[in-house]
Design a protein that fits this description.
By secondary structure, the protein is mostly helical. The chain is built from 8 helices and 3 strands, in the order αααααααββαβ. It has a 3-stranded mixed sheet with strand order 1-2-3. The two termini are 43 Å apart. Keywords: Membrane, Transmembrane, Transmembrane helix, Transport.
């Protein structure tokens, strides 16, 4: 299909991105819920604090998909005079909720683990505990692959980050397996120690998530995106120099503006150049919804 620069095509791209993003959230939520419920059943049978820590974390990960889903729904609201850019920034609020849930899961896991260190309890059904850890890893990895793949396709940094988060969580599930093996080998406090290690790993993940959410809240942008837009503009016909490029995330979509200089001799030529430059950026970066290009004369 030939590429079109009609504004309707940009709307279609945004709607397709929204639909794919919501589908990814629905499917991954179902997978993570099934994984967490399976692990919870084994926790009830075994009393493993390491598995409890991992289960609580997986439940929190399941819940974090809900505000992101709501944010995707709000992004479809029509812009108004009060909200002229729409409600796509609701995705940043969802990010704050995700940060709080990760922090809460780390606190719960750590408190339970410390309690078990001072008040050890026997862990039964170790085979099931190890199996549940493997299930946790498999569920997180499936979700990670799916979210990252869809996130990259639609240009959603939040969905990609959520996928990377799920992948890291899968390795905490493997820690449960290590704890279960430690108990089998005669180290009864291995379960509680691994629970603490999981809490620390969750805290490390929290640091990365805070940085990512903070970048969006402060209108930050990945420098490589600006570099790409500058490269496209610089290679647009009749553009002599790129004076400025600005981009900002609005949810999982991009808006921006630029100033370029040219030796075009008429206002009509300058207007055509601005349109061509805007279309070139949108074609090279499909997640850009709006790009306003201002043309200045390069004549001295």
């Amino acid at each position: 299909m030939p590429h079109s620069h009609d504004p309707a095509d940009a709307i279609d791209d945004a709607m397709r991105a929204h639909t794919e993003g919501v589908r990814a959230l629905k499917i991954s939520l179902a997978i993570m819920l099934a994984t967490a419920l399976t692990q919870a059943a084994v926790v009830a049978l075994s009393g493993s604090v390491a598995l409890l820590a991992d289960t609580v974390h997986n439940f929190s990960d399941t819940l974090t998909a809900v505000p992101l889903w709501i944010a995707f729904a709000l992004s479809r609201r029509v812009a108004t005079r009060r909200y002229p850019y729409g409600l796509s920034r609701a995705e940043d609020l969802a990010g704050l909720f995700i940060v709080l849930m990760i922090a809460l899961s780390a606190v719960v896991a750590a408190s339970e683990s410390i309690q078990r260190l001072f008040d050890p309890r026997s862990v039964s059904n170790l085979g099931w505990v190890i199996a549940a850890g493997v299930v946790g890893f498999a569920g997180n990895e499936i979700v990670a692959i799916y979210r990252i793949r869809v996130g990259r396709r639609i240009g959603s940094a939040a969905l990609v980050a959520d996928g990377v988060h799920a992948r890291a969580d899968g390795f905490t599930s493997l820690a449960v397996v290590v704890g279960g093996i430690g108990v089998l080998l005669g180290f009864p406090i291995a379960d509680a120690i691994v629970g603490l290690l999981i809490s620390i790993m969750i805290g490390v993940l929290l640091i990365g998530t805070v940085r990512s959410v903070g970048l969006r809240l402060l209108d930050g942008i990945e420098p490589e995106l600006v570099d790409r837009a500058e490269h496209v503009l610089a290679h647009t016909a009749r553009v002599d120099a790129v004076e400025r490029v600005r981009l900002r995330w609005v949810g999982h979509r991009l808006r921006g503006d630029a100033i370029v200089s040219t030796r075009a001799t008429t206002l009509i030529d300058a207007d055509r150049l601005a349109i061509e430059a805007e279309h070139a950026v949108k074609q090279a970066m499909p997640n850009v919804d709006e790009m306003t290009v201002r043309v200045r004369s390069a004549r001295t």
